[in-house]
Every structure is written in C-alpha cells, then in structure tokens.
Predict the structure.
Amino acid sequence: MKINFLTLYPEMFPGFLNYSLMGKALEKGLWSYQAINIRDFATDNYKTVDDTPFGGGAGQVMKADVVDKAIRSVYKKGALLYMSPKGKPLNQQTVIRLAKEDEITILSGRFEGIDERVIESWPFETISIGDFVLSGGEPAALMLTDAVLRYVPGVLGNADSVADESFAGDGLLEYPQYTRPAVWNGKSVPEVLLSGHHKNIEIWRKEQSKKITQQIRPDIWEKYQEKL
Ligand code: SAH
C-alpha cells in the first residue's frame, strides 16, 4: 500500500504512523508513503500558495493552479481523497473499501480550504472525519491512513482482530474488555469471563455490545434492528 500525502506541511508525516504497529509495518515495507509539499509548485518568487476569497470574507483560499500542479505530479491511479468537513463522514465501510486500493493520494487543505474548481477537476472523493472543524487536513489524513492500514495484510499481529471489534461484523460497538488482576481496587471482572465457558462468554459479550450500542449510539442501534 502506497500513500501520497499532498500538504503544505510535509514534516507532519508520517507523524504518529511512525510508532507502534504502523511504524513496524512501515519498516517492514508493508506500506510506504511520500509527502509532497504543495508549496514546491508555487510559480512566483514568494512561493505564494493562497489568496483572498472572491466575494470577500475571512481567511485565505489555496490557489487552484498550484494545487493542480501538485496533484498532477503524483496522482496516477487509485483513490484520490480530499479531507474536508464538507465531505462524506468517514466510516468503517469506507475504510474497508479503501484498504483494497494499491495506492491512495490524500489532499489536505489549510486556511479556509481549496479553490473549488480544482476539487471538481479531478475524481476526488471528499471525506470528513467528523462534524467539527480542524485547522488543517493533515491530522485527518493521518487518521484515515491509520484506520485503512489496519486492514492491510500483515500490519496487525492477529488476523482476527479486525473482524471482532467495533463497527465490524454485526456493526455494534465492542463489549467491555478486562485483563489481570481479576480484582482491582475492590472491583471484580464479570464472573462469566473467568468461567472458561466459551459459549456463555460469547452470549455475555453480545448482550453487552447491544446494551452499549443502544445507550451510546441509538443511530447504529436503529440500523442494527432494521437489518434483523
Ligand atoms: N472553511 C472550511 C473549513 C476549512 S478548515 C469550512 O467551513 O468548511 C481547513 C482544512 O482543514 C480543510 O481544507 C480540510 O482539509 C481540513 N479539515 C478541517 N476539518 C476537517 C474535518 N472535519 N475532516 C476532514 N478535514 C478537515
């Protein structure tokens, strides 16, 4: 899996993806990345990448010509993503679909965003990581990449771990997890988990998943019930 990051801040990459599982996977060559500095494609002596918005208003807008040249320099195939609060909210289905690509190119905006014409000129899929506004797309690009890489074969130690977690399989949130000691701070772990009775553990976990989803995410719960 190859990831191309288009950004004004290439030094932000690979960021936290240099650590832990993703860092090891990067070392092993299970994925690779390139961070392209959009500013390298500015055409004037001042290396200008932004300008004031037509129609007025606060902030600056990233220039179409500069961003277009940056895209042209790297994008050949695979998924082309623009991180934006105006995008489709990222979810696990999208993550799983993107994990099937060999190459993903991700454009991160800064300021008030990017001249709309350049977004329209390429086959962009616009993706949001949630209903809030960041100061730049870079953390969003890193988050999306982290979620996608978990599905790249060999990246996670245990092949089962992506199948049995929140949003996977039945789509419900995951049940609570516990580890040793069995009693901590006067609190015992649920008896059934110590029983070694796999069927009962499975039933308990499913019940917990349902309960938590119902409480925390009524939207997901509703969809789950519709599917039954
Ligand atoms: N003016 C824009 C916000 C610009 S924020 C608006 O109101 O919609 C600057 C950049 O941060 C954006 O170009 C985008 O790349 C990134 N960004 C901000 N919030 C984001 C989010 N929720 N998801 C993905 N990217 C986001």
Summary: The mean pLDDT is 97. The first helix runs from residue 20 to 28. The beta strands are 2-7, 32-37, 50-51, 61-62, 79-89, 103-108, 125-128, 183-184, 187-188.
